[in-house]
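FAQ: What does the model actually see?

It sees only this:
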Amino acid sequence: MISKTKKIVCICVGIVIIAVCVTMFFLLSHKDNKNKSTVRTSPTVTIETPEKVDDDNFSVDVTLSSLGDSIYPAVSMCIDFDSEYLEFQGITNGNVKVIGDTVPEWNVDTGYSNETGKINIMYLDISGGKYAFSDSLLNDNDNILFTLDFSFKDNAQSDNTYEFEIEDAVFATENSEKSLAVNSGTLKTQNVKFIPEDLK
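And it is asked to produce this:
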């Protein structure tokens, strides 16, 4: 028969083991949550698949996942499209805001874009940073930089595949070493191609 003293010792040891297990569980959980909160995706510019394409026109959103720790007063981007079948109609401002709680105004030459099949888009904050891009202003609901509007030319076919590619993109800082650029590998891109009849 187990003595009363041994019973007490066993109970105490059991309590200590349970306490250690509970403490380890909470420490590991806290560590996992901390790691999850500090994980950041690489800054990526994405041309999204259109939600819908009708017989005459469609639009594609261009989104941004994140930025670095700096502020970015200048942005330039070149997007290729098939000007043989598509007519670029212009650009619509997105919902990403810059410092100052304003939506940036993008500059683009529609005529030149249709001649070359390259959409050159620019933004420049001439204030030197008062209206710059910042990672703190990005979130899952506000990540659309701008929307590109297109119409189909008469020779376009709904079963053709249309591709849009980001040829180059730069988010520039005053310190060029902290700028994000496709050519340097500090800015990622995701392109898109689709068949219109699949999205009707």
